[in-house]
């Protein structure tokens, strides 16, 4: 979260109105409801994990064991099971 000076980004009439309620304090203004991104969308990690999980499912269908996949991907056996048995 980055800070911006209110007097540099808000119109003066709006700044005066906000100062009636909060003066000299920090205030957080959240993004509109529909504009929020899901976890990992900005960095791309969400997509990377989807690709990794698809590979794990593919290798499992090809005959790789849970233990082999666990070793290969440095994940616990329980994590591999959650990935391959997810509907």
Automatic annotation (TrEMBL):
Segments traversing the membrane: none
Lineage: superkingdom: Bacteria
Coiled coil feature spans: none
InterPro entries assigned: c-mor_Regulatory_Protein, Homeodomain-like_sf, YraL-like
Protein name: CD3324 family protein
């Amino acid at each position: 979260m980055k800070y911006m000076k209110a007097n540099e980004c808000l119109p003066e009439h709006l700044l005066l109105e906000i100062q009636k309620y909060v003066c000299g304090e920090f205030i957080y203004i959240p993004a509109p409801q529909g504009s929020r991104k899901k976890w990992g969308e900005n960095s791309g990690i969400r997509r990377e994990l989807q690709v990794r999980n698809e590979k794990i499912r593919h290798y499992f269908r090809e005959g790789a064991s849970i233990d082999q996949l666990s070793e290969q991907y440095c994940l616990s056996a329980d994590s591999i099971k959650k990935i391959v048995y997810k509907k």
